[in-house]
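Aim 2 progress. For HTH-type transcriptional regulator, the working sequence is reproduced below.
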Amino acid sequence: MSLSDKNFSFVMHCGEMGSRWGFNRTIGQMCGLLIITKNPMTANQIAESLSISRGNVSMGIKELQSWQLIKVQHIPGDRKEYYAPAGDIWDMANRVFEERKKREVEPTLSLLRDNLLDTASNEDELYAQKQMGEIHNLLETVTKWSSELQRLTPEQLNKLMKLGSGIGKVIDLKDKIFKKE
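Predicted structure tokens for this construct:
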């Protein structure tokens, strides 16, 4: 399958972004390709489109399946497996956030909790624990907030994001109102 220049540019960009999302370039490219391709693709079609080996595609498929970002589809009368995105863009974004939380945030919170439970033996450790406590509280707050966001429908998320800087104005207004009382 041949990609237009615009589509190829997007897929390559997804590859570059892959490392920032938590997976390698090839997996990012595969994810981008499947997202913008109307019909499900076979592993051979993916390999051909990205000019990568079939083995590389197989490893990428396993990784994308472990992230629950793609699903296998079968076409009646065809023995090949076809791959497509597992849900819409919002579903996929939620899965990436959830997986990154499991891989990155939860181990960090666990380490911070362990360190905060230990008694500081000197002034430096006491200061370090204070800083770690702030990091812990920030991560806990972000984790709770992101969990709440994941419960919203895509329509509700769109409305929330469109509020943008308006949220800051509402908070400022609330602070002014309650300070006067």
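The first helix runs from residue 5 to 21. This observation will guide construct design in the next reporting period.
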